[in-house]
């Protein structure tokens, strides 16, 4: 028993050193060395350029169970993604994105509806909707494929709102929704090489 008590102060000291010095140091090094290069920075500056090149297209959204949705055709398709941000001890602070990838016969292209930190919208199946897309994405042959669908960062109903309280037709709300969605898409989802080519190299 004496030997056990003799080691308690050392164990306690180790816990204190680990909790006070080692763990924060690990967080600091990861934040400094890893996260500054993981995502695109200063995206707010370029979000307006992306938004200015937006246009609306009208498509028909098929039934949820149809093979038009990539997640039905290929169940392993990623529909939820969590982005790891600087470590602050709160996992739930990390932003999330939900994806609805589908094929449009009208345009013969694949699209992916993306929602970043916003509730997923239901009630759009078997309805006509307006999709807000970027003109550069639409004209680029590298976009619109199964592996690289065209991002859709805003969707509203044509004849009726697909959100509660007719939010689709609340311009202030939808403008804010779209801008915040664009910012998160540019920051977390757009590849760094693509971001640099489209925005940084064109300053």
Oligomer: single chain
Number of E strands: 7
Global structural class:
alpha+beta
Radius of gyration: 23 Å
* Uncertain stretches: 26-33
Specify the helix fraction band. Answer: 25-40%
Average residue-wise pLDDT:
83
The biggest sheet, with number of strands, parallel, antiparallel or mixed sense and barrel status, is: 4 strands, mixed
Strand content: 15-25%
Count of discrete domains? 2
Q: Write the element-wise H/E pattern from the N-terminal end onward.
A: HHEHEEEEHEEHH
What is the count of DSSP helices, taking H or I runs of 4+ residues? 6
Question: For the largest beta sheet, what order do the strands appear in spatially?
Answer: 2-3-4-6
What does this structure look like?
The chain has two domains: 2-33; 42-202, no CATH class. The chain is built from six helices and seven strands. The protein has helices at 2-33, 44-52, 70-73, 135-139, 171-189, 192-198, and strands at residues 54-61, 80-82, 96-104, 109-116, 127-134, 150-152, 154-157. The strands form two sheets. The protein has a four-stranded mixed sheet with strand order 2-3-4-6. Strands 1-5-7 form a three-stranded antiparallel sheet. The protein is globular, with a radius of gyration of 23 Å. Residues 26-33 have low confidence and may be disordered.
């Amino acid at each position: 028993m004496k030997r056990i008590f003799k080691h308690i102060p050392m164990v306690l000291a180790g816990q204190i050193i680990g909790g006070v010095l080692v763990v924060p140091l690990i967080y600091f090094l990861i934040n400094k060395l890893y996260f500054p290069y993981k995502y695109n920075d200063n995206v707010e500056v370029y979000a307006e350029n992306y938004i200015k090149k937006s246009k609306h297209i009208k498509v028909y959204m098929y039934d949820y169970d149809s093979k038009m949705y990539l997640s039905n055709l290929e169940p392993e398709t990623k529909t939820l993604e969590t982005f790891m941000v600087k470590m602050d001890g709160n996992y739930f602070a990390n932003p999330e994105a939900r994806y609805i990838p589908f094929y449009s016969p009208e345009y013969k292209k694949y699209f992916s509806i993306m929602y970043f930190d916003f509730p997923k919208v239901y009630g759009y199946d078997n309805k006509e909707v307006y999709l807000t897309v970027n003109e550069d994405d639409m004209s680029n042959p590298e976009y619109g494929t199964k592996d690289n669908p065209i991002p859709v960062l805003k969707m509203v109903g044509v004849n009726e709102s697909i959100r509660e309280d007719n939010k689709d037709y609340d311009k202030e709300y939808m403008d804010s929704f779209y801008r915040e969605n664009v910012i998160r898409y540019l920051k977390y989802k757009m590849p760094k090489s693509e971001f640099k080519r489209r925005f940084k190299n064109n300053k």
